[in-house]
Write a structure and sequence with these properties.
alpha/beta, rod-shaped, 2 domains, Arc Repressor Mutant, subunit A, Rossmann fold
Length: 210
């Protein structure tokens, strides 16, 4: 039997989903809680196989409860079951240590299957949550814009930070003024900025110059 602790501040939700889970041959609801504080106490005393955790509750929210449970019991498997898909709910919940993330709009059978999969070591995420996580990962893997600059463009950007005009840059580098203008235009485009001032600010912000 997979032992489940169900945490939700809505009694009807606990009754509805809880009854379905209890009717399964391989699942057993061993405890219920209606706030995060009680969830922490029950989780550490009952040591259930799976914890179904609501996020928004009156006394202590599910994110804080998840943090405290994981801190005291790192092997706990927590499935978030909530109505919220906001970034300030999804990412903090996963970062707190939640294993899976389900929505209350899911069928009770889907939640039951999520319990089974999570118990066996899988991560179960709603499609919308998966999309959010993948998008954030792609953004995190994105190369800094300045890595697209050529050696000459970086050299010109350095001179721009010194306040040199295009003609001064051309004279110092012994290249044509038209060539400098082309390089400056490329720099602005690659750094996704509108003017020279923003390019200089970018350079200092990303420590391209001291």
């Amino acid at each position: 039997m997979i032992r489940v602790l169900f945490v939700d501040d809505h009694e009807m939700v606990r009754i509805g989903v809880g009854s379905y889970l209890s009717a399964q041959k391989d699942l057993e609801v061993v405890g219920e809680a209606d706030d995060g504080g009680a969830a922490v106490e029950l989780a550490l005393s009952l040591r259930p196989d799976i914890i179904l955790m609501d996020l928004v509750m009156k006394e202590m929210d599910g994110i804080e409860a998840t943090k405290r449970i994981i801190a005291a019991w790192p092997d706990a498997k927590i499935i978030i079951v909530t109505s919220f898909l906001d970034d300030d709910k999804v990412y903090p919940a996963l970062e707190a240590g939640a294993t899976s993330y389900m929505l209350k709009t899911s069928k009770a059978s889907d939640i039951a299957n999520a319990v089974r999969k999570t118990f066996h070591g899988e991560m179960v995420l709603e499609r919308e949550v998966t999309d959010k996580v993948m998008k954030k990962m792609r953004q995190g893997d994105k190369r800094p814009l300045h890595e697209e600059l050529t050696t000459r463009e970086i050299e010109i950007l350095h001179l721009m930070t010194e306040g040199k005009a295009n003609q001064e840059i051309a004279d110092e580098l012994y290249i044509a003024l038209k060539t400098v203008k082309t390089h400056v235009s490329n720099i602005l485009s690659k750094l996704e900025v509108q003017d020279r001032t923003q390019a200089v600010i970018y350079a200092f912000k990303h420590e391209l110059v001291t």
